[in-house]
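Tokens for Bifunctional enzyme IspD/IspF. Go.
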Amino acid sequence: ARIAAVVVAAGSGIRAGGDKPKQFRTIGGETVLRRTLSALLDVAAIDVIQPVIRLEDTSLFKAATEALPPAKFNAPVGGGATRQESVRAGLEALASQAPDVVLIHDAARPFASRALIERAIAAAEKTGAAIPGLAVTDTIKSVDSHSLVGETLDRSSLRAIQTPQAFAFAPLLEAHRRAHREGRNDFTDDAALAEWVGMQVVVFDGEAGNIKITHPEDFMRAESMQAAQLS
Ligand code: CTP
Ligand code: MG
């Protein structure tokens, strides 16, 4: 099967702060984006990688990808105002190549292991829609607008969802096109779109180390994680 990966790197990284978007800042001297792309390049089954960036970040992108083997890369395309729009731009850019399976991965998750990425591919080839999840360890409660507790949710049935999320390409592209046509731009991940069009989505084991760089302190955690990888 032909396997593609869309890497969404078109966010502004507001919460993480800093002088440039978090995907262009470094961990252990290497940019977050370069680490993320290298993890995908390490997976032989992936045929093509489609980066999505803000076009104003083109020179940052070039610097971050310098000397990476170009064979598997499509030229970056511009993203949109929301993550959902950025994913759609990446899928549209891949449409002419018509891959069988597509992984959607956050540039902000530089620690996805090869084993995790391979699990995603295998699960999607079997089921058509598969996402990594972790059991939640905190107790989760719903609250109302006054911070009053509504209920305590059954933790055993909850999962915290990561990327890479993996899908049969054609139905995911169709789901994105339909959401766009219908003006729905409030889906926070691709699985939510797949669920919306009635695809069955399965959860496979995620990884605790597959953190999303979100807040400033995540860079400190990432630095110590990468130092531990070296030792
Ligand atoms: N993303 C994107 N296009 C957007 C928004 C987000 O490609 N319009 C990407 C980000 O670059 C990131 C991933 O989606 O790799 C997950 O989003 P998030 O962690 O929210 O990153 P940002 O939106 O950049 O950060 P923030 O919400 O703090 O501004
Ligand atoms: Mg965001």
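The longest helix spans residues 216-230.
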